[in-house]
Structure to design on (173 residues):
């Protein structure tokens, strides 16, 4: 897991740095951080949350290429008598944001998510928590509204077999 995380983080940083350095002097790129809330669509989780960082590099007056990474934690539903842990997701996505008006925009991104899932297992009279790491294709579509420094957005983010409805309160961009 540490190797996948490190590789993913290095790739994301390299992409963001490369995109930022490829700009002309006339273009400005935006950077923002965001607090995330999530409502999972899979039955095994109650809610989720986390933090993300996003860059946007303008390519037209209304369009920008985006890059997003961060960490999300999903809290599992409680199982009587068993210790459970949050699922951790690290998304690494690139996409396109299109301004539909001065403040309203649509955003689509795709990439991959490194996930660590913890599962309780029972063997006889003892219980333990095991973990499995995986990398999944990820996509998201959403809308947002720029309010000066604040940037709230709503999206659906999907994985191979699950997803969530996310609300992001971004600062910057």
């Amino acid at each position: 897991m540490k190797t996948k995380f490190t590789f993913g983080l290095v790739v994301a940083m390299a992409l963001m740095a490369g995109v930022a350095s490829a700009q002309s002097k006339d273009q400005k790129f935006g950077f923002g951080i965001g607090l995330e809330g999530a409502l999972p669509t899979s039955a095994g989780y109650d809610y989720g949350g986390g933090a993300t960082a996003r860059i946007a590099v303008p390519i037209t007056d209304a369009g920008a290429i985006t890059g997003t990474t961060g960490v999300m934690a999903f809290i599992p539903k409680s199982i009587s008598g068993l210790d459970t842990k949050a699922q951790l997701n690290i998304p690494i996505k690139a996409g396109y944001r299109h301004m539909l008006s001065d403040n309203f925009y649509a955003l689509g991104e795709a990439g991959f998510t490194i996930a660590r899932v913890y599962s309780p297992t029972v063997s006889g009279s003892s219980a333990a928590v095991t973990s499995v790491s995986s990398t999944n294709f990820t996509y998201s579509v959403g809308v947002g509204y720029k309010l000066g420094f604040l940037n709230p957005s709503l999206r659906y983010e999907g994985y191979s077999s699950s997803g969530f409805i996310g609300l992001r309160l971004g600062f910057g961009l």
